[in-house]
Write a structure and sequence with these properties.
9 helices; five-stranded parallel sheet; alpha/beta; Arc Repressor Mutant, subunit A; four-stranded antiparallel sheet; Rossmann fold
């Protein structure tokens, strides 16, 4: 399969009800090489998180209808994407509330673009250090490769076409490889928090995915069922580490035998 060494820009979702502020942030972030997606209210923000899969969210607190705290509370039910709160209020109570709800950082308006970009890069570094990053080509094994920059899936060297919902489902499973994703988590993250009771959606699309990526869908080795709970993507990272350690150990043994001989 063709592999690109070029890493796609980080995608930042800017949520603010003021057009002028969104435009100001967009221009400055794009100048620094980021890709920018916009939302003008809480409902749009949750839709963009689901559909655009941003790497980080800049979330304004002071918005009509649903303020940033309400949006953050709902967002944390469906995603662990890093969030930086933007607000004209800088009281300690607001900062503590945002952090307790799951915000990763807090920037008070007015702010310099240098400070904002610095905060964004710092949060992204922390997040990647803990969770890893789904950028570039992920080689699950010799058979399955996923290019998260191009949103392409390759099986046995052939490009497999996934529908948007199938791709989002695979994205979240692979992002949490080795961990069980419950029905509720998958429904909230892939379809939206209002679909949390529609378990049959998950079963149906898991079946679609298995038909496309598994060698034997009736005996899957990538997407594993946790009966009554949800699904788990095989922990390929741990398997790769174990294989490397085993190979290194075999090399040490071989060198020792040669030395003894």
């Amino acid at each position: 399969m063709p592999v690109s060494n070029k890493k796609r820009p980080y995608r930042i979702l800017v949520v603010d009800d003021e057009d002028r502020m969104r435009r100001f942030i967009r221009l400055n972030l794009e100048y620094d090489g980021f890709e920018v997606v916009e939302a003008s209210n809480g409902r749009e923000a949750l839709e963009r998180v689901r559909d655009s899969l941003p790497d980080l969210v800049l979330l304004d607190v002071m918005m009509p209808d649903r303020d940033g705290f309400e949006v953050l509370e709902t967002l944390r039910e469906i995603s662990d994407v890093p969030v930086i709160m933007l607000t004209a209020r800088g009281s300690e109570e607001d900062i503590v509330r945002g952090l307790e709800l799951g915000a990763d950082d807090y920037v008070t308006k007015p702010f310099s673009t240098r400070e904002l970009v610095s905060r964004i890069k710092a949060v992204l570094r922390r997040f990647e250090a803990v969770r890893g990053s789904l950028h570039g080509v992920v080689e699950v094994d010799d058979r399955l490769k996923i290019d998260f920059d191009r949103r392409e899936v390759w099986v046995d060297g052939k490009l497999v076409k996934l529908r948007p919902t199938e791709y989002r489902l695979l994205y979240h499973l692979v992002q949490n490889a080795g961990w069980v994703m419950t029905y509720e988590q998958l429904l909230s993250r892939v379809w939206g928090y209002e679909y949390r009771d529609e378990y049959h959606y998950v079963r149906l699309y898991i079946n679609y995915l298995r038909q496309k990526i598994e060698e034997d869908p009736s005996h899957p080795k990538y997407i594993l069922t946790e009966r009554g709970v949800g699904y788990r993507f095989v922990d390929f990272r741990r398997q790769q580490e174990q294989q490397k350690k085993a190979a290194a150990a075999d090399g040490d043994v071989s060198e020792t035998r040669q030395a003894d001989a």
